[in-house]
Amino acid sequence: MRGTSRTALAATRQSLDGVLRGIGAQANSIVTLSDELFNVMAVLDSSPRLRRALTDPSREDSAKQSLIRDVAKSASQPTLELLTSVVSQRWSSPRDMVDAMEAIAVEAQAAAANLQGELDQVEEELFQISQLITAQPELRQALTDRFTETQTKVAILNGVLSGKITPYTLRLLRAIVESPRGRSLDRGLAEFMKATADRRNHLIARVFSAVELTEGQLTRLSQALSKQVGQPVRLNAQVDPETIGGLSVRLADEVIDGTLINRLTQARRVLVG
């Protein structure tokens, strides 16, 4: 993506974070969010006219928001909230907007898996399936044959993998098969693995402290950050004697350090318990 779309994607991820915080620890609702995003993405992917209308810089944001609500009129409120944010951004191309919509749909599915402690497994399963596809060209052919109906491909996928992988991984695979978007199966898997990794990286906080933190302090800090973002957060802690104010935390694009007095005070209170 070019500069404008990269900025729009970053803003879209922030909107996703806000929606996820609003949903809270309800994995099923997050799965619904992901499924609805995939459904809308498929509609836009098949309609160049809609894509152009939703990314036309001369069109008022209110008009774009009204149009996307019509497209997704049966979607849940969290999905509509996120979609109206997406179409309010400025995109370098209509395709970039749809790519971003697909990426956050994958990230939402990963967020649901993370709530259930299954994100590691989802990542591993996606990798293993990419290896399986490479090793079994007949399976690749069955899932990508353009003369085979989509529902038949999904039935094959279910027959081979249902009950053997997490439902989160299976939903992601179905999305790739149902909406290949002109990609090879290998490329689709690679892009979904990247989006899943992006969500994981978004949930890893890098913690720098002037002295080594105790396990209890790390646990309390992790709990506080998890409460802030509405998702389990992992800590990557390092000792740096030159850390400003004694503590610095980087979570996604946000930095909490000793120059931000209020946040530093709050972080210290957390560590003290």
Nearest-integer average pLDDT: 89
Regions with little confidence, pLDDT below 50 for 5+ residues: 258-262
Helical content stands at 55-70%
Compute the number of structural domains.
2
Class by SSE composition: alpha+beta
Q: Can you write the helix and strand succession as a string?
A: HHHHHHHHHHHEHEEEH
Assembly type of the shown chains? single chain
Structure characterization notes:
The protein has 273 residues and is α+β, with helices and mostly antiparallel strands. It folds into 2 domains: 3-201, no CATH class; 204-272, no CATH class. The protein is built from 13 helices and 4 strands. It has helices spanning 3-23, 27-45, 48-55, 61-71, 77-88, 94-115, 119-135, 137-144, 150-161, 167-178, 185-202, 215-229, 261-272; strands at 204-209, 234-239, 247-251, 254-256. Strands 2-1-3-4 form a 4-stranded mixed sheet. β1 (204-209), α12 and β2 (234-239) form a beta-alpha-beta unit. The protein is globular. It starts with a helix and ends with a helix. The model is unreliable at 258-262 (pLDDT under 50).
